[in-house]
Each structure stands twice: as structure tokens, then as C-alpha cells.
Amino acid sequence: SIVGLNNNAYQVERGLQYVKQAELDETCTLIKGDFLKIPMKENVFDAAYTIEACCHAPDRNAVFSEVFRVLKPGGVFAGYEWVMTPNYDPKNSTHVAIKKGIELGNGLPDLASIDHVMQSLKDVGFEIIEHEDRAPKTRKSDIPWFDPL
């Protein structure tokens, strides 16, 4: 079965309508909850994923720890997030303005670096099997790092 977790009641209700419309209510459900306190027992899921969600967490170790807790031993976790690439220069006013614009426009706390996120995952027990910075694959060398954003 598939369980979705969202902290927004409207999005949960809307998602449940889509699940029912697609006749998937026997295998899919959505619950309203806090990803810092996932309302599930330990070791219940084979896999978990996130799409631009964990970047909203005030403490990445806390959210990743919760995901690790609800995964069965050997379970996998995948996702993609807003993170700062190694090309970000905090002394470059253009970079800083773009970063702040992303944070404001997406309601994000201070964006973390790729290295910080990778370390947070390791700190709570995850083994990094693969990770990739997708931005370089979407641009030519003469296009700035922030263009794909």
C-alpha cells in the first residue's frame, strides 16, 4: 500500500478525492501529519520519498531521523530538494539575492548546502547510495548556475 503524508488538510482532502476518482482507495491513502512526528509505528515502510518537502524542515536531522525510524531495515529513501550547489558564492550579491528569492518564494528557511544535507542523512543512519546535482545537467557552461531555478 501507499501512504502519503502532508501537513495541509486541504491538500490531503484534495488528494483523497483524486485517489477515489482513480479507484486507488484500496491501495492508497493520505494522512495529515507532521513530518517531524510521523504518526506511524517504527519499521513499517519498504520505501519513502520526498519531493521538495524536507527543505521546509527547521531541522533536517529531525525529519530524516523520522523517515529512518518508519523505514524497515534495508528500506530506501529517495527525493529531490532545494539545496545550494557548491557553485553558490555567499559573497556574490547576485547569488545571495537569488537564494533569498527562492527562500521567500517557496516559504523556505535558510537553504542548506548539498554537503549539509548529505551529512544530515548520514548522521541519522542512512547510507548514501547515490546522489546527483541535477543543475549542471540542465545547463550549458555559459549559463549561470542559477538559470535552471
Structure description:
- By secondary structure, this protein is α/β, with parallel strands linked by helices.
- Helices cover 32% and strands 18% of the residues.
- The protein has four helices and four strands.
- The protein has helices at 9-21, 60-70, 93-106, 114-123, and strands spanning 2-6, 28-32, 45-51, 71-80.
- Strands 1-2 form a two-stranded parallel ribbon. Strands 3-4 form a two-stranded parallel sheet.
- It is globular.
SSE arrangement:
Layout: E1 2-6, H1 9-21, E2 28-32, E3 45-51, H2 60-70, E4 71-80, H3 93-106, H4 114-123
Parallel strand pairs: 1-2, 3-4
Quick synopsis:
The chain is an alpha/beta fold. The chain is built from 4 helices and 4 strands, in the order βαββαβαα.
Order of helices and strands: EHEEHEHH
* Helical amount: 25-40%
Strand order of the largest sheet: 1-2
Poorly predicted regions are none
Q: Identify the quaternary structure here.
A: single chain
Distance between the termini: 34 Å
Q: Tally the helices.
A: 4
Secondary structure tally: strands: 4
Mean pLDDT score, rounded? 91
Radius of gyration: 17 Å
List its salient traits.
149 residues, alpha/beta, two-stranded parallel ribbon, two-stranded parallel sheet, 32% helix, globular
